[in-house]
Amino acid sequence: MAGELSVAGADLELIDVRKDFPGFTALDDMDLHIPAGQFFALLGPSGCGKTTTLRIVAGLETPTQGRVLIGGKDITDTKPHERPVNTVFQSYALFPHMTILDNVAFGLRQRKVEDPVAKAQAALDLVELGHVGERRPQQLSGGQQQRVALARALVNRPSLLLLDEPLGALDLKLRRQMQIELKAIQMEVGLTFLHVTHDQEEAMDMADTVAVMNKGRIEQMGAPEALYDRPKTAFVSKFLGQSNLFVGKVVDSNANSVSIEVGGSKITVDKKRAEKHEGTIAIGVRPEKATFHESKPTLGADHVLIGPGEIIDIRFTGVSNQYLIEVPNVGEITVFAQNVGKSPVVELGAKVWISWKVEHSFGLRDLPDGTEDQG
Amino acid sequence: MAFAAFGSSAPTTQGQTKSGRVVLALLLPGLIYLVLFFVIPLVSLVLTSLEAPAASGKIGEYVPGFDIGNYSYVVTKYWPQIARSFGFAFLATIISLLISYPLAYFIGVKARSRPMLQRMLVTLVIAPFFISFLLRTIAWKQLLADHSPIMEWAHQVGLLSPSQSFIGSEAAVVFGLVYNFIPFMTLPLYTSLERLDIRFLEAGSDLYASPAKVFRKITLPLSMPGIISGTLLTFIPIAGDYVNASRDFLGSSNTSMIGTMVDADFLQNRNYPAASAMSVVLMGIILILVTWYVRKSGTEDLL
Ligand SMILES: Nc1ncnc2c1ncn2[C@@H]1O[C@H](COP(=O)(O)OP(=O)(O)O)[C@@H](O)[C@H]1O
Ligand SMILES: [Mg+2]
């Protein structure tokens, strides 16, 4: 299995995987299927179990329960060195007693691949470190070591490449460059990439599919656009971009939509964009989908209107301005407005109404932390 | 001077001389110790090794001289003991390494998740030092003596032929040497394995190396500093040991080592120049071997 260089990626399947550490459940009933050749991102905050997931796939950790399949083959009990998998470790783990070139050639030599040195050199060139082959890892910067770790894994062309925050130590410019490079390599070779990150932009940018993890569980999985457009949990709506969330009792429900009442305002969501249709539910909207008005507008039923409120903070972020609006009995609402023409459009303390199209609302499956379910 | 030193505007040069004096004061006890207990005895040893017999011809009386003959005398007379010393040292060091490595690996790596067990095992390794090693060697002499329960058993199961005795044999001496010096191997190995980063081993297995390959390509080279200090700390004192090989302990007249001969020449024959020459020869050989060893293992594999 590990004997030949793979020509294409293999699919990865985690079935009902659970990992208990003494007194702590790091992974809970994890189900995951990554089709062959996909660039899959596992996104989540620090400590949510991302590294543990990769270690289970690599065979460095035994799952307490569940199976791991690669290319349809159950490898749960296969030793790490017999798995067609390579890892870019979060800690790099470059061998300190070997030169950079020997580090990169290590996997090739173990599998007795022909011409390991030339292939390792080519891999180093790819990450623009062709000139450091004779140095030791300790003589490189963190970012350089990270790229060497990348080269050391990539050079083996595994059917499944596991990347544990592989770009975390790079500065922004190099990071963008490596993101493009990585994506290009993945497309060219057709390998399956399981990329772990806590950088939502990186995940959205690079991945075909993003899975958002929280506390040892996958909260939601899907194409980046779909996740952004329709987050299904409060955590996803906040972790992936920003959201305004409103919690209230359903007061109105018809064939197409449900409405909740919050502080005297009615907030409506399309039924097909809502996970829950009764009781107390949370409805959200992205800050850039909302607009504000200096006088109360007349809008139809296809809009949500809240207000009046007071602008309590304005932030300039270049292309857009962020307005924070305090609405009595509703709470704070963030609105992004494009920075065209006069800026800012309104002054601090101005009285404004907020509106957005109902089709931009999304209804969540759960409630934000700290709000009680009264339904 | 003192006034200026405490003044707020004391120039830097004075500050430097002051700190220089502090460094000197701190080094002084060590320097005095080295001169008193190393340099002077060494010079005296070399001078003694060149002394010639006194004109009176009395045993134990020598006059300063430049008698190189002492060296050719001891080398021609004692070459079997010299060879045996280094043979025993080599053998005992290898055996100690083979026993210590798995032990140190277990304590330093496997027992990491159980700190209580780890501390207990380290204490057990050091524990023998709490009893004088002469006492312990004498205890072994009793345990391994003919007709002791252990030996009765060894004869019964056929480990020894009926008339054979273990005590006094070369094997008994090597056994004693290993027993007495093994902590000096285990402890440095443990220190270096305890620091071994498991993540390197994981990276190795992730890169298709079998457990045996991971050991050879990663664990072993990374624990090289421990192996080198362990082997030096056992090999050097073993080569000069005179207790285990002595007739009074585990050896016989057929097992004598360099140390035994120095002991005999110095205390019984009162041939001080020969004993000194012997010591210088021992020191010279060790110096050459160690230099060669450190060079060979140091430049390539040591970080
Ligand atoms: N060997 C271990 N023993 C106990 N707890 C562990 C162990 N490894 C990880 N954990 C815990 O499991 C959780 C998930 O860890 P990890 O997978 O490294 O998170 P992430 O990579 O998402 O930051 C953390 O709370 C961590 O403390
Ligand atoms: Mg991690």
Briefly summarize what is shown.
The complex is a heterodimer of chains A (375) and B (303). Chain A is built from eight helices and 20 strands.
- Please bin the fraction of helical residues of chain A: 10-25%
Architecture per CATH nomenclature, i.e. the level-2 architecture of chain B: Orthogonal Bundle
* Secondary-structure element pattern of chain A, one letter each: EEEHEEEHHHEHEHEEHHEEEEEEEEEE
Mean pLDDT of chain A: 91
**Which CATH top level class of chain B fits?**
Mainly Alpha
Strand order of the largest sheet of chain B: 1-2
Strand content of chain B: under 5%
Helix/strand structural class of chain B:
mainly alpha
**What Rg of chain A do the Cα atoms give?**
25 Å
Number of strands of chain B: 2
Poorly predicted runs of chain A are 1-5
Stated plainly, the CATH topology of chain B is called MetI-like fold
| Ligands bound to this protein structure | adenosine-5'-diphosphate, magnesium ion
Q: Helix fraction of chain B?
A: over 70%
Shape of chain B: globular
Q: What is the distance, rounded to the nearest whole angstrom, between the alpha carbons of the first and last residues of chain A?
A: 54 Å
What is the number of independent domains of chain A? 2
The outline of chain A comes out as elongated
How many DSSP E strands of chain A?
Answer: 20
Tags for this model:
heterodimer; A: 375 residues; alpha+beta; Rossmann fold; OB fold (Dihydrolipoamide Acetyltransferase, E2P); 2 domains; 6-stranded mixed beta sheet; 5-stranded antiparallel beta sheet; elongated; disordered N terminus; B: 303 residues; mainly alpha; MetI-like fold; two-stranded antiparallel ribbon; 12 helices; globular; binds adenosine-5'-diphosphate; binds magnesium ion
Structure description:
The complex is a heterodimer of chains A (about 375) and B (about 300). Chain A is of the alpha+beta class. Chain A contains 8 helices and 20 strands. Chain A has 2 domains: about 1-230, Rossmann fold; about 235-365, Nucleic acid-binding proteins (OB fold (Dihydrolipoamide Acetyltransferase, E2P), Beta Barrel), CATH 2.40.50. In chain A, α5 links the parallel β7 and β8. In chain A, α2 packs across α3. The longest helix of chain A is centred in the middle third of the chain and has 18 residues, at about 170-190. Chain B has one domain (about 70-300): MetI-like (MetI-like fold, Orthogonal Bundle), CATH 1.10.3720.10. Residues about 1-10 of chain B have low confidence and may be disordered. In chain B, strands 1-2 form a two-stranded antiparallel ribbon. The interface of A and B includes residues 2, 94 and 110 of A. The structure holds adenosine-5'-diphosphate and magnesium ion (MG). Magnesium ion (MG) binds near residues 51, 90 and 164 of chain A.
